[in-house]
Design brief:
By secondary structure, the chain is mainly beta. It is built from one helix and 14 strands; from the N terminus they run E-E-E-E-E-H-E-E-E-E-E-E-E-E-E. A hairpin with a 4-residue loop joins strand 6 and strand 7. The longest helix is centred in the middle third of the chain and has 14 residues.
């Protein structure tokens, strides 16, 4: 059983030993996020291209558009290419932000802008006409004080009694998130 809703049992093997394992997260899983520079109204037309999840889309931003209009136009272009899982927003500082829907280092957002960091541009990239890639982060931490490896939100024990114990971590917090208890029984249930 898990002591909190932030933890979800995923797997065990014959190497996993019965016991209660404290889950300590040192790095929360995170989706790939691109945050541009703070900008104002576009000074010139700008072609913005995005790759995510094996698809690519482009959006033609036009001179005179403020950041909120660019952020509103990007999702429609992305959705038209089947990239509906990518959110485009403008934060309070006037920065464009693109965020994927899946966590982990296997997920990346690539962005290319014809203007790069030129004054009056979208601020989404630093170099003009070059693809820039940003990856998500895998969860990192320990299970019962023992080494564990992260892949996306899944933290799996790699040594000792916690070997092969897989716990999905749904929280973005770090530190001790609670514990999971494993008792082998009928079908090796997690209680």
């Amino acid at each position: 059983s898990a002591s909190t809703a932030a933890l979800e049992y995923r797997s065990v093997s014959e190497r996993t030993k019965a016991g209660t394992y404290e889950v300590v997260v040192t790095q929360a899983a995170r989706a790939a996020t691109v945050t541009g520079a703070a900008v104002g109204t576009l000074a010139a037309d700008e072609l913005i291209s995005v790759r995510y999840g094996g698809s690519e889309a482009s959006y033609q931003a036009t001179a005179g558009q403020p950041p909120p209009q660019v952020a509103a136009g990007l999702p429609a272009a992305l959705a038209g290419a089947g990239i509906a899982a990518l959110a485009a927003v403008v934060d309070g500082g006037g920065r464009q932000r693109l965020r994927g829907d899946a966590v982990g280092s296997a997920n990346a957002i690539e962005v290319r802008s014809r203007r790069g960091a030129a004054a009056g541009g979208s601020g989404l990239t630093t170099a003009a006409d070059a693809w820039e890639q940003t990856f998500g982060l895998d969860v990192a931490g320990t299970l019962g004080g023992l080494a564990a490896a992260g892949r996306g939100a899944l933290l799996t024990g790699t040594t000792g009694a916690a070997e092969d114990l897989g716990v999905n971590v749904t929280s973005s917090a770090t530190g001790s998130l609670g514990s999971v208890t494993y008792r082998p029984g009928f079908a090796g249930d997690m209680l």
